[in-house]
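FW: tagging you since you asked about this chain on Friday. Here's the raw sequence from the shared folder, copied in full. Didn't touch anything.
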Amino acid sequence: VPKCYLSAIDADAGRFVILMEDLGHLEAGDQLAGITPARAGAVLDALAAFHASYWESPKLADLDWVPVQDDPLYVAAVPPIVSAGVAALEHFDGDLPAGSLELARKVDAGFVDLTYRCAAGPHTLVHGDARLDNLFFRPGTDEFALIDWQLSLRNRGVYDLVWLLATSMDVEAQNAHAHDLVHRYHAALEANGVRWAFDDLRRAAAEQSAYLLSGPLSLIGTFDFAEAGDGRAAALVRKWVPRGFNLALLLGAADVV
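HL: got it, structure written out here
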């Protein structure tokens, strides 16, 4: 995690300052280019070690300012975003895996119940936005710094696993490697002392992949392609949405919602 030298806020004026360690000597990840399976495995090894350090730990009680996935604000705010995204998905002109719209409709109908299931535990501290654009790598290695912790949650560790692959791995690589990477994450947890039955982890990952369709659905529900033109943002959305749906279908989301 980059060192933070200063953070201060004037809540009344809405002004703040953050002075953070310079990461300019590191290589920024490129979500549009996508993450390789080898690098994804290395990142998941590190995330598993991080998750293990907080796994059902008393330390989580000291982080009561970090929200849980079924926080009332999320339960109230996210379902309408999902519904708007499903309506927009019907007109999305990008490439989507077969069954995407049907899955989106099922997720929309059962989203609140899905939220509570995903929040049930086991609990650890998750980053919440572990995608390639937030990773900075030491050149020539898979050692990385991870920024943007403002979406952190007390939640199941598979949240970060699913989000990394759903946002940052191309569909073809997902098809070839996603299941192996789920096994690798499980093995890394076990190597760090966590005992979680693989079948339970796999079901949790399927549930989380369904819940995290809220990400691509929020994008297409609010994104103005005409205004954005052919820029990086539009290209990223066209990559991200199929990745998210493909991973959810691969992990069996349709069977758990």
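FW: The beta strands are 4-10, 15-20, 27-28, 124-126, 135-137, 144-146, 153-155.
HL: agreed, and The radius of gyration is 18 Å.
FW: great, closing this out.
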